[in-house]
Each structure stands twice: as C-alpha cells, then as structure tokens.
Design a protein that fits this description.
The protein is mostly helical and about 290 residues long. The chain is built from 13 helices and no strands. It has one domain: Orthogonal Bundle (Farnesyl Diphosphate Synthase), CATH 1.10.600. Helix 3 crosses helix 13, helix 4 runs antiparallel to helix 8 and helix 11 packs across helix 12. The radius of gyration is 19 Å and the shape is globular. The N terminus is likely disordered.
Length: about 290
C-alpha cells in the first residue's frame, strides 16, 4: 500500500514526512516502493531544470547527442536532480535554525531512493555511489561554513569541489544508459576534465546570484570569500576562477592527439562560454 497523501506533505518543522516514513520503514520495503511513491515537488523540478539544461548543453556534445535525445534520459536524470533540490530546500530550512546536519540528514534518504531506482532500472554505474556520498559531504560542509564564525580558504574550495557532484553522478548515469563501458582510467579522464568546468560553472553562477544570496543569507562561494577576505575577496576569487579555467584547457590540450574527443570537449567549452559570458565580480558586501 502506498503512503497516503497526508504522509507526503510538508511537516511544520520543515522536514518531509515522506523522509520520516522511509526512515521508520524496513529499508528493503522502502526501496521496493522507490519506483512508485511520490518523491519530488514542482518547486524542485523547476529549480533543477537549470542544471538539466546545462547538462544537455555541455555534456551531450561529448557523445554526439542533441536536444532531441533528451527525453530518452529525462525520467532518470530529471528524477535524480529534482531530489537534489528537494534536499537543498530542506537543508536551507535546517540552516535557518543554525543547526548542523547531525541528527537528521535529508540527503541520506534521497540517496537511498536514488540508488534503489537506479538498481531496479539497471542503470546504476559503479562510480555513482561515490558522487552521491560526496554530495552528502557537501551539504554538511556548506552548513558548517554558513554558521561557523571562523572558516578557511581550503574549506571553501573543498565545498566548491564537492558541490558539483550532482553533475558527476548525472554524467556517470548517462554513460550507463548509453551502454558506454569505459575502463576506469578513460572514465576518470572524462570526469576529471569536466570536473574543472563544473567547479568554474558553480563559482560563476554564485557571482551572478551573489546579491540575492546575501539578501536571503543562502550559501554562496563568493559570499564565503568575503567572509574571510573582506574587500580583498574579488582578488582571491579571480585567482581560483583563472586556475580552474586553465586546468580545463590544460586537460583538453593533453587529448589533442584524439581529434574526436578533443573536438567534443572544445564544443562543450564553446557552449559553456556562449551560455555563460565571463561575469563581472561585484563589489563585496560586508555583512555584520
């Protein structure tokens, strides 16, 4: 029997009752329902659409896929990314109370649902669990950075590196759905090349949303730089942006002896810069 509508609505304390239902169920029973129970909201689908759009623009050229191929993969990829944004909503509610994510980990339940769906659909890539775990680590680190009075540059950049783990598990899942079984060395090369672009993308997105994130007190990489560097934050952020852009181009040049692969990554970069012109770093807003 499926959970009632009432058990799937938002509870007053900001935690989804669906999470509570799944946590109290036997894990095997919860997993058996993963393909059937309602798990995502309109809001999470709306917010995740940006990531899916970028995923199509930057990753599909690598495998000679086009927009017309998108709906072959949408049910799985869209479901996974929407659950990321379900978690993001819950984490932001927890952060508003200045609590760490120790007693309740919203992502853990979502991760189990994703793994169950991938296993039942036979689309579970052997590396996907690593990136799901990394995203859980990111949510915890993000909360620490927001509420701790003293943070470090290294912590901020570790968060930036973990933050785009959703792109990596989407990438792995796409490869599994395409039936492309790379050797680990070749697979890691593909993931490593796109990783630097993913980090760059997330930081540049944060530059665009900086003023809004300051107003709402949401996590933002540039906002964290301002927290530790004040007026010098633009200088240190620009150094990181230059580093990751250089890292991407350096990696692409190393595969120039493989024309097809080289052209695919160049197409991804061109699509990225056409869609994301280099943003201007705004003046720091010094918060109390």
């Amino acid at each position: 029997m499926l959970p009632s509508i009432e058990s799937l609505t938002q509870s007053k304390n900001g935690l989804l009752k669906q999470d509570i239902v799944c946590q109290s169920m036997d894990k095997d029973i919860c997993n058996s329902l993963a393909l059937e129970i309602p798990c995502i909201s309109y809001q999470s689908m709306k917010r995740s659409s940006r990531v899916l759009r970028e995923f199509v623009l930057y990753y599909f050229p690598l495998y000679n896929l086009s927009w017309s191929d998108f709906f072959r993969f949408y049910p799985i990829l869209g479901f996974m990314e929407a659950l990321v944004y379900e978690t993001d909503e819950e984490v932001e509610q927890i952060q508003a109370t200045n609590c760490l994510l120790k007693q309740h980990s919203p992502w853990k339940t979502k991760q189990e649902i994703i793994l169950a769906v991938l296993e039942k659909s036979n689309f579970k890539h052997h590396q996907v669990e690593t990136y799901l775990d990394n995203l859980g680590e990111y949510f915890e680190l993000e909360t620490h950075l927001l509420i701790s009075p003293k943070i470090t540059h290294e912590e901020i950049m570790k968060a930036a590196q973990l933050r785009s783990s959703d792109y990596r598990f989407l990438h792995c899942t796409l490869l599994k759905m395409l039936g492309q079984n790379f050797h680990d060395e070749e697979l890691n090369q593909e993931l490593r090349l796109m990783w630097s672009l993913e980090v760059l993308n997330d930081i540049e997105d944060d530059i665009e949303s900086y003023e809004k994130d300051v107003a709402t007190k949401h996590y933002n990489t540039y906002r964290m730089f301002v927290k530790i560097y004040g007026q010098q934050a633009p200088y240190y952020l620009k150094k990181e942006l230059d580093y990751y852009e250089h890292l991407f181009h350096q990696g692409v040049e190393k595969i120039s002896d493989n024309p097809l692969k080289y052209q695919g990554f160049q197409k991804s970069w061109n699509a990225y810069r056409l869609d994301h012109p280099v943003p201007l770093i705004p003046q720091p807003i010094l918060e109390n």
